[in-house]
Specification:
The structure is a single chain. By secondary structure, this protein is of the alpha+beta class. Helices cover 31% and strands 36% of the residues. The chain has a six-stranded antiparallel sheet, covered by helices on one side. The longest helix has 20 residues.
Amino acid sequence: MGEPQHVKFPQDVIDEYAALGVDLQALFSAGHLGTRMGVQIVEASAERVVGTMPVEGNTQPYGLLHGGASAVLAETLGSVGSMLHGGSSKIAVGVDLNCTHHRGARSGLVTGVATPVHQGRTTATYEIVISDEDGRRVCTARLTCLLRDAPHADRTRERASD
């Protein structure tokens, strides 16, 4: 779980963040909560984010995947997509998350795939489909993020106006 992730990013994204001296892998990780839950981001672009999470360790008392765990995976993937859509001058802040749980999962890995529903200037909305290892849909989620100016973007604009 604590191992470094090797996410597949588009080359233009790698170049954009490298020019700013930003650690892309750390910035677009699942964070401390996602790390504790075993979330691994496998592929990331503004058009598609894929990640996995083990069922084991993320269950409710009946032994089924906890709905909150599905929500963490969904919000992580949708947020990464939103951040990539916004680019290095924006940060994404989740403002609405809706999850519909279709079936239980008791073991193995679940995989989430986030794809954009709306990619605007100030908001981004992603649909996240979480499936079990047999390809059966476990959860469908929708996340909307507000895109705010990144703190370093304000400093860059101030320097440009001097």
